[in-house]
Write a structure and sequence with these properties.
Length: 417
Amino acid sequence: MGFMQKQFFRLGFSLLVALSLAVGVVVQPATALTEEQKLVSEVWRIVNRSYLDETFNHQNWANVRQKALEKPLTDHKAAYGAIQNMLKTLGDPFTRFLDPEQYRSLQVSTSGELTGVGLQIALNPQSGKLEVVSPIAGSPADQAGIKPRDHIVKIEGISTTDLTLDEAATRMRGPIGSLVTLVIERDGEGEKEIRIVRDRIALNPVVAELRSSPEGKSFGYLRLTQFNANASMELAHAISSLEKKGAAAYILDLRNNPGGLLQAGIEIARQWLDSGTIVYTVNRQGIQGSFEAFGPALTDDPLIILVNQGTASASEILAGALQDNGRAQLVGETTFGKGLIQSLFELSDGSGLAVTIAKYETPNHRDINKLGIKPDTVVTQQILTRDEIATETDLQYQAALDLLSKNSVVAGIGNKS
């Protein structure tokens, strides 16, 4: 699944609501706390005022703070452990503490470039296992033969069972030329050890090609691999180029796209819509914010979107927005079902805190979390190699072509000048 950039608010994302602090909570004077205790209290206060679930997983949140401060916190490491134990009681894997190194790594992962093995990972919601969403095209992991839905069992001999997503990602990142050993489990094949040399990962999230339909009409094939800081601009350039080349329709491939920046998903939805709601946000008070399209769209050509079980988070916002607005038809499998929004807070010692602050709903008020989005045309697909994507072997891609032909959305459009 996908990671959120620091402070959605700084990127134009704001719920525009005031969250009141809990009433009647007795807090020790700040002067009576050590630096470590202050850090624990800082985290407690952020969660107290921002967390989506106002019951805090059906527990007394003030008592959780008191219990965390009862134990001696002799250094920052002890404070970090106390914070992690405090957050675990919420039962939300997306609300998590990031030490300074993990916090910097998360910021880098959405900036457009990093070094490491080139894997997009998520926790499988059913099994809880660390799972590969997709290797980045051309990355060391891709070249090593790692595939979507592979389970990562060990990283450098350390079991991933007790690792958070951020801890796992941090262990796989590293200097160019350094070696990392992974143990991968693949359904029907058992465990396999893979040694990978880390390299610089270029995060160009867009693949764009002008292709011909069976009727000989031109259409644009676009594959969007993630929603990083470059995604909206790169996709806009691709659409503009394909329009000039005479594309009469589009297939947008969001399969195995784990998401990323919420704002990028919203901006890309606006590229396809003249008007309409893109997504609703709902906080713990039930207050709704919304993001709207204000046009003009970059193209009004027909659009088919390919989705699968690895389509998550910002990808689901985009797919749901275009489906509910009648702008696109979806083909493939029900999506991942990650409908929660996190905001990233920088703490006083340089560490970070990701907090689930809201959930999102599609324009038709569908709750995506743990449910996903069902496509208009359901087509199951075996795992493909990189070279098989969008070829005759790709059943979902072929179904999209058939749908274009049957609906005459390509054949019925004249050639553009």
